[in-house]
Amino acid sequence: MLLIITALVLFGPKKLPELGRAFGKTLREFKKGTKGFMEEEDSSPSLQSRKDAHMDEANKR
């Protein structure tokens, strides 16, 4: 409740919807970016599997 009152005092009632939309847009872009990053990370081989492959190759020599 205190946050809402502070926001009203600082920005005024006319600016709050605009700030809310900007915050929502920023949050959506952030989620989209992190989702793309997570998908990219999932598609690449894990560090452990790369280490295992390297160790197998070294043991064959």
- Strand runs, count: 0
Task: Assess the beta-strand content as a share of residues.
Answer: under 5%
Structural class: mainly alpha
Oligomer: single chain
**Mean pLDDT, nearest integer?**
78
Which value, in Å, is the CA radius of gyration?
24 Å
Overall geometry comes to rod-shaped
- Put simply, the count of helices is 3
Order of helices and strands: HHH
How many angstroms does the end-to-end distance come to? 68 Å
What is the makeup of the main sheet?
none
What share of residues is helical?
Answer: over 70%
Uncertain parts = none
Task: Note the main attributes of this structure.
about 60 residues, mainly alpha, rod-shaped
Describe the structure.
The termini are far apart. The model has no long low-confidence stretch (mean pLDDT 78). By secondary structure, the chain is an all-alpha fold. It has 3 helices and no strands. It is rod-shaped, with a radius of gyration of 24 Å.
Summarize the structure.
The chain has helices spanning about 1-10, 15-45, 45-60.
Annotate the secondary structure layout:
Elements: H1 2-11, H2 16-43, H3 47-60
